[in-house]
Structure prediction request, 303 residues.
Amino acid sequence: MQQPEDHTQRPVMALGLRLAAAFVLSVMLVFVKLAHESGIHLAETLFWRQLPTIPILLLWFGARGQIGKLATKRVGVHARRAIYGLIGMFLNFGAVTLLPLAEATSLNFTSAIWAVILSALLLHEKVGPWRWTAVLLGFAGVLVIAQPGDGHTPLFGAAVALGAAFMIALISIQIRDLGRTENPLTIVFYFALFSVPVLALALPFVATAHDAYQWSLLIGLALFGLLGQFFLTAALRYGAVASVIVMDYSGLIWATLFGWAIFDHLPPWTTWLGAPLIIGAGVVIAWREHTLARQRRIAAGNA
Prediction:
């Protein structure tokens, strides 16, 4: 019988992996936005984002004589993760096509806020005043960035970005559970395996011929997406969600730089004011989660 692998917590490695993921995924989003501007349909972008993952990982495991690592007894959990992941990718990529990079990235950071709400509603976890205050602070940042009625930020785009953040929170909980028994690349493999056939159904209606430039964009986003997904999954394998999620905020630096250098866009004052509120809320939540986890460990040790 296959034994679960050692999952000793390695917080420094987890932080480094999450930091690398923030950079790599920021590059991937640049490719997504460029692909959209070149005329490639979102569904086709998602298909080519996922398809190369399957042969690449088969070759990787095969060359190392580790095909057995793809064996799993949790097919149903992988399928559910794929459904949530596919919805999350549609929303995440869609937000990038509807909003500038910095604004989409800032609203994406509300995933920590959604995680608190989900833990209270679904897990019936007791949420204290620190985290509820952080939730209110974060949504205040959302209102500052979106400026309802102002017309600067498209409300539909903001809603899509918030939906993507919600799915990220939901998926993070699921990946954390899967990571207790599955190899990070195994989780990535099954996500692609279940999502590619669904995306293929849309191809006859949206696929078009591509030139060399468009193919380079699709190849780039596929490679960076695979690498980023591995880093994210591995980070959750070696560290708690509350500990590593702080590294995600470095993505705003890359999004701002790429938005300025490639798309000639600098965020307006509303983003500069609202983003720190959202980031501050996330930091408070991460700090509080870390404190509570430490208190539980101490209590367990004294029991």
Q: What stands out?
A: Residues 88 and 164 are 5 Å apart (CA to CA).
